[in-house]
């Protein structure tokens, strides 16, 4: 099973980082207010970054790493075409 680490950009230009096995469904859930409560009032969101992880554990580690970054570093990741895995 492939896991993904993803970043969505909300209507207020904030970023949300998460993990999932189904990107399309997860973004749909966020946009239907069935995802993270932190995004309520900030929808719609759009997927701006994704990368594959070997398993759930690796996805969780990478998610934590990205969440610890400042906004500028996240923007650099999003804009780097080589990083899009």
Detailed description of the structure:
With 85 residues, the chain is an alpha+beta fold. Helix content is 35%, strand content 25%. It has helices spanning 23-31, 56-67, 71-79, and strands spanning 3-9, 15-20, 46-53. It has a three-stranded antiparallel beta sheet, sandwiched between helices. β1 and β2 form a beta hairpin.
What descriptors fit this protein?
three-stranded antiparallel beta sheet, single chain, 85 residues, alpha+beta
Q: Gist?
A:
With 85 residues, the protein is α+β, with helices and mostly antiparallel strands. Helix content is 35%, strand content 25%. It has a three-stranded antiparallel β-sheet with strand order 2-1-3, with helices on both faces.
How many β-strand runs?
A: 3
Fraction of helical residues: 25-40%
Instruction: Provide the β-strand percentage band.
Output: 15-25%
> Average pLDDT value?
91
Helix count equals: 3
Uncertain regions: pLDDT < 50 for 5+ in a row?
Answer: none
Topology, pairings included?
Blueprint: E1 3-9, E2 15-20, H1 23-31, E3 46-53, H2 56-67, H3 71-79
Antiparallel strand pairs: 1-2, 1-3
């Amino acid at each position: 099973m492939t896991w993904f680490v993803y970043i969505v950009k909300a209507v207020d230009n904030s970023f949300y980082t998460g993990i999932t096995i189904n990107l399309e469904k997860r973004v749909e859930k966020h946009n239907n207010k069935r995802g993270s409560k932190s995004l309520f009032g900030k929808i719609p969101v759009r997927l701006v970054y994704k990368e594959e992880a070997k398993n759930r554990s690796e996805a969780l580690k990478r998610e934590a790493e990205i969440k610890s970054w400042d906004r500028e570093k996240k923007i650099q990741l999003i804009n780097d075409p080589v990083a899009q895995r």
